[in-house]
C-alpha cells in the first residue's frame, strides 16, 4: 500500500535537507536534489512497487543524487577532501569520526555508520592474519605494544610494523568509501 507522501515529506524533509546541505555547495542545489529525491519517491511508492524501508531508501537516493550532482560539477564549488596528501586525510577521517561518534540517532547516521563498520570489517578481513591480530589486540582489546609482543611472541618492532601496515590498509579503504560517498570515486 502506498505511503502518505505528505507524511513522509514532513517526517524526513528537515533531516534530509541537512544531510544534502552538508554535501553540496549551495542552497539551490540542496533544494534541487531534495525535490528530485521526493519526486523519485512519489514515482516508486506505488501499489505495484512500494518502498519498504522509507528512510534508508530516501537517504540512498539522496546520496546517489549528490554523487551525480558532484560528477556533473566536477570542477565547480565542492571542496576535494580525498587526496593522497596526509593533510587532506585529516578532513576525511574527521568526517568519518563525526559520523561514527555522532550521538544523534537518525536514519542518515545509522546508514552511514553501518557502511563504515562494514567497510572496516571487510578491510580487516583482507589483512594478513598477523596484521589483523595486532590491530585487533591494540584497538579492540587495548593491549599495549609490549603486551602484544609478549602475547604473540613477536619482536616489538615487528608488532609496530604490522600495526602500521594494518592502519595504512584501513585508511586506504576508508578513503575509498569516503570518495564513493562524496562522489570522488
Automatic annotation (TrEMBL):
Entry's Gene Ontology molecular function annotations: DNA binding; sigma factor activity
Q: Please state every residue range assigned to the domain named RNA polymerase sigma-70 region.
A: 9-72
Q: Name one Pfam family in it.
A: Sigma70_r4_2
Q: Which InterPro entries match?
A: RNA_pol_sigma-70-like, RNA_pol_sigma-70_dom, RNA_pol_sigma70_r2, RNA_pol_sigma70_r4_t2, RNA_pol_sigma_r2, RNA_pol_sigma_r3/r4-like, WH-like_DNA-bd_sf
Superkingdom in the source lineage? Bacteria
Q: Which UniProt keywords apply?
A: DNA-binding, Sigma factor, Transcription, Transcription regulation
Q: Could you tell me which residue ranges the RNA polymerase sigma factor 70 region 4 type domain spans?
A: 118-170
Biological-process GO terms, alphabetical: DNA-templated transcription initiation
Q: Which NCBIfam families match?
A: sigma70-ECF
By sequence similarity, the record places it as follows: Belongs to the sigma-70 factor family. ECF subfamily.
This protein is called what? RNA polymerase, sigma-24 subunit, ECF subfamily
* Species per Swiss-Prot/TrEMBL record: Leadbettera azotonutricia (strain ATCC BAA-888 / DSM 13862 / ZAS-9)
Amino acid at each position: 500500500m502506498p505511503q502518505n507522501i505528505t507524511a513522509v515529506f514532513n517526517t524526513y524533509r528537515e533531516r534530509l535537507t541537512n544531510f544534502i546541505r552538508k554535501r553540496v555547495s549551495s542552497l539551490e542545489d540542496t533544494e534541487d536534489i531534495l525535490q528530485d529525491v521526493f519526486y523519485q519517491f512519489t514515482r516508486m511508492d506505488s501499489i505495484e512497487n512500494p518502498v519498504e524501508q522509507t528512510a534508508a531508501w530516501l537517504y540512498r537516493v539522496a546520496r546517489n543524487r549528490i554523487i551525480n550532482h558532484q560528477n556533473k560539477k566536477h570542477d565547480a564549488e565542492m571542496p576535494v577532501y580525498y587526496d593522497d596528501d596526509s593533510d587532506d586525510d585529516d578532513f576525511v577521517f574527521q568526517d568519518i569520526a563525526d559520523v561514527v561518534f555522532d550521538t544523534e540517532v537518525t536514519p542518515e547516521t545509522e546508514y552511514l555508520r553501518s557502511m563504515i563498520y562494514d567497510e572496516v570489517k571487510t578491510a580487516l578481513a583482507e589483512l594478513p592474519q598477523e596484521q589483523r591480530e595486532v590491530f585487533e589486540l591494540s584497538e579492540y582489546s587495548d593491549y599495549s605494544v609490549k603486551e602484544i609482543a609478549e602475547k604473540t611472541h613477536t619482536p616489538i618492532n615487528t608488532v609496530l610494523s604490522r600495526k602500521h601496515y594494518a592502519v595504512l590498509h584501513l585508511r586506504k579503504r576508508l578513503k575509498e568509501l569516503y570518495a564513493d560517498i562524496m562522489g570522488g570515486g
